[in-house]
Protein 1
Amino acid sequence: MADSGQMGVRWHVKQSYFLDAMEFELKIENQLHKLQVEFKEGVYHVGLDDQEYLIDSSTVSDHCLSLLVNGKAFTIYWTEMNGKKHLSVAGEKYVIEEAAPDSVTASGADSAGIEEEPVAASPMPGKVVKILVNKGDKVEKGQGLVIVEAMKMENEIKSPVSGTVGKVNFKSGDLVDAGRPIVEIEPDA
Amino acid sequence: MLSWKNSLISLTGSKVENFSNIHMIQKILIANRGEIAVRIINACREMSIPSVAVFSIVDRNSLHVQKADEAYCIGDPPPLESYLNIDKIIQVAKKSGADAIHPGYGFLAENPEFCERCEKEGIIFIGPNSKALRLVGDKVESRKTMTEAKIPIIPGMMTSGKQTKGFKEAAEKIGYPVMIKASAGGGGKGMRVVWSPQELEKGVEAGMREAKSAFGDESVYLEKCIEEPRHVEFQVLADNFGHVIHLCERECSIQRRHQKIVEETPSCALDEKLRAKMGEVAKKVIEVSGYNNAGTVEFLLDKNKNFYFLEVNARLQVEHPITELVTGVDLVKQQIKIASGEKLTITQDDVQQRGHAIECRIYAEDPENNFLPSSGKILFMKEPSGPGIRHDCGIYSGCEVSVYYDPILSKVVAWGETREDARNRMLLALSNYTVLGIKTCIDFLSAVVGHPEFVAGNTQTSFIAKNMSDWKEKTKEKRFLNEALIAAAISSSAKPTSRRRFQDKQEMPNPWLTLGKWGLGGT
């Protein structure tokens, strides 16, 4: 197990005030929206269009989410179909396509000035389905390292750098928390 | 009245004894599906009459099968194999011991052969007698009957012609503007409006050319052009003893693809005097047709408040709930009572309109794509409820909407003291109505009921073409886009649930178990 000291710093972080944030690229009617979501002290901090929203979110039932946005109440019904989220907010329907979270693909984290941690970590709590590499393997940047299942979807986590596989901290079937390094890479010089 | 009663008895011949004796119905087969079957089953339940559902193989999991006391499969999905299969339905009625059949609307509801077959088999058809059903179903015959009875019909030529002569005189008699219609017509082909005598000959020639190319028959005829028409219909009840009452009007002008989607009562276009006048004419239509049980008399009402008889809908209507809400009369129960041979206990003077009711039909269809039906699984659904809201429903979370049948899913009906109250309740109900997984017209209906022209009561049959053609654009203004995006992200992100607060169930003692010695009810 990797020590928890590594948890705070990961490669996909793009904005300083969302140090622990997960990033989402969501598509609605071919318009792309980027969101950063961070859960801190019982509150979701969501960054959207250069605005920060503080949200008290509660899961009412499998298909119902209650959001309190600065005290404003929204009851949202949602379901997932063919990889798309169908949501109903106050009678209005939205179909939102979810691009994989940024952190899943290391290649998406090429923003300048941020040092990438050479590890493969799950963006969300899930189950390790398969480790695709062994210790000592040579890997290319963008090569798949591990498959994690979360929210009933399988995500392939890719190598952020080219290098050699160092430590493999989990095995198939293990449950893994968000951000835990599953595979560590020793980058090429 | 006496002559009508006599004629009814002579029409039904050997069935005379049924009109004098009350036959307590033992069991009712509902030859239908969806929300209307559920509605009828509920009425049966209230009256303690066992109900029998029939279903096609794709409807095994349908709501009406779950609600009925008994249910039998009658065949393959295509309606001809199942819900229109007279032999099979009669067979199930006999096997299950059902002594009456309620046909609902659509399918076999207005099929005289089915009605006759029931009469022959000694099964009560909950609807009109077969002679009346045959008469009102025949456009030409009923037009003749109504003309003889001096019922106002849309003035027009009783014959059609293949030459232009004779049209001029006919047009003068009818009065401009006139409508040229193809005898073999349908779908608006060959139809055109002529405003003055100068345009007539050209119009007739053009109409003939169009009719010839569309139907292979150039015959056309003239009819009075009804300007800015409203569709206003009257609900009637007639028992087997010649008592006829009307339960006031329903306005059903809001239509798409010639099918109603929003109905209301009272109509904004009627005052007490006109209502009474139209109501009397509606009753007369029923009387001269020898019609019994529940029926609806349809009229077109022009902008000068002239009204013209269109046809009789010889069945329970989709939009019957709005009449039930403002009159307090349960039409399905009345149908069953009348079919049992009971006399009407409601008189015309008893009928009062209280408040206002609006119905919106929820169809599985895509309003942005020419109202094309949609099908599939309803992944999640949340129904509206609240004061003054009625929801007649044939679906549930997880059910499949098949491609085989009419895509009506449910009906939302709102009642309020005034039209504005009813309208606001409807808007609230529609905004609280969530159906996920298939497309529905809920958003479109909200836009209709919220439209300034609807608020103003300007509900002509051209409403949707006139006011809603740009609706697709309007939907793009998404008021809750940010909330939807946030919810989509949060529902996918790590879920730090509140479980941490109560890590162990045992830490949360059940207060009822720790109460000690308490007495209930203050004893």
Protein 2
Amino acid sequence: MIPTVALNRQCFSQLPDDVLRLIGMGQYTLYRVSVSEQPEIQYVLRTGQQEFFFLKEDGEPVSLNGSADFDIQEKVNLEDVPIFSVVPNLNWF
Amino acid sequence: MKLLDSDTVWAFLSGSDEERFLSDILFGIKCLLYRNLPKENILLFIDQLDGSNFVAAYDFPKGIAIYSTAELEAKLTANSIKKLVIVVTGHGNLKGISASPDIQPYHLLSVIRKLPGAEAALVVLGQCFAGTFNFLEARSKDADGKVIIPEICFMGATDLTYSVSVPVDLSKAPIADQLEFPLQWNANLFLMFFMLQVAAPIDFDGDDRFSVLDAYKASGIGTNAELLRIKRVAFMSLQQSIVDSTISQFSQPAVAQQLIERARQDLDSASNTILTNQNPWILHANLARKLEL
């Protein structure tokens, strides 16, 4: 399993609301990463099958499908971004 | 015919290593391990984004091999499989399963048919447009009444339309604490319900057996029941999202604009959830009745 860390949306002041919403929906995934060649990059935002963005610490996107190697540290859950639906009770048991 | 004994290999397949698909697969693995299927009987076929390490970050259980989808035929053939279950997540398209290369229905059928020693196979298709695999020639008897081996059952999460993944929370499920899995993720609904049936099967039709047919009915009903429930919530949420995002000063405005436009398109596409109905289907129900969980 991938380690996760819970952060709030204020940590990502430069990410548009639409993006935060899509992260909350589970369509986009935000990872905290380390990039040895580009220490200003703190996060990778996976937006699609063939697409990801490098982000700075405040969420500012700086490159698309960057070629630098990165190590994924954690998956970021946004604790104050509401997801648009939840299956609350599964009564199949 | 049992599908959770040491004679059965379960293969999970995804042409994408996006978070939701990796989580679908991890959940499936946990359900199988909960039922004591040996790890060696689980194979993963996942196409990974070039140069990335998304799959490695998810720390799949040791002892479970991960291959690319292009290796499916070679690895299945090499494993002397008696009974096979393939669970497909990821994306689908008009030609079949989105992968590198795409997997067309007759190719997959051919791969299974050629497996030496195979007696039965079940294919559970969770991707969009799973109905592209419907109406294959999966009959178990030839014109002379002779049983064709292996018998194959295909099951689709949806017909010629989208299948959806939505955020789910299984933390209140009675077996949740035993699955050792983050129980909130953006799940392919049909596959989630199917794997729940694998983990904790219920005899819905009263024949005193936990059959694949039970799992099919539970998965289809569960998917549509949840879809109906989330549509109202999704509609309200999407209405609220139709506001202009405020744009700050960016050091890379072109990149930022790409992300903003992409997000807007993806939010628009999310309305598919409101409009989608999933019609599951099954091909060769007689075999599904014989296959037990």
